Amino acid sequence: MEIEPVARRSAAIPFQRTGATAELAEARAQLRALAPPHRLDDVQAEVRRLQAYEGLAPLTAVQAVLAKLAAGWRPA
C-alpha cells in the first residue's frame, strides 16, 4: 500500500504584513522619507509626544506628523 502526501510542498511564500501592522509600517516608511535626515530623531520624538500627551494611537500619531511635515512643519 502506497501513501500519497496530502499536499505537495511548494516554495515558501514571503511574509506579508496585513492590516494595521502593514499600515503602520508603510506610514513609518513615509515618515522616514519625508523627514529631514538630520532631524529624524526629533520627528520621531514628536510622534511619541502625540502618543503620550494627546493619547493618539501609533498609526494616528504617525499620520498626524506626516500631515504636519507635508504642511511645511520642521522640527526645531
What labels would you give this structure?
0% strand, single chain, 3 helices, elongated
- Total helical elements: 3
* Helical coverage, percent range: 55-70%
Count all strands and give the number.
0
**Approximate shape:** elongated
Strand content: under 5%
For the terminal residues, how far apart are their CA atoms? 76 Å
Would you write up a description of this structure?
The protein has 76 residues and is mostly helical. It has a domain at 19-70. 58% of the residues lie in helices and 0% in strands. It contains 3 helices and no strands. Helix 2 crosses helix 3 (58-70). The longest helix is centred in the middle third of the chain and has 16 residues, at 19-34. The radius of gyration is 20 Å and the shape is elongated. The termini are far apart. The mean pLDDT is 86.
Please give a quick description of this structure:
The chain has 76 residues and is an all-alpha fold. It has helices spanning 19-34, 40-54, 58-70.
Secondary-structure topology with pairs:
Blueprint: H1 19-34, H2 40-54, H3 58-70
Helix pairs in contact: 1-3, 2-3
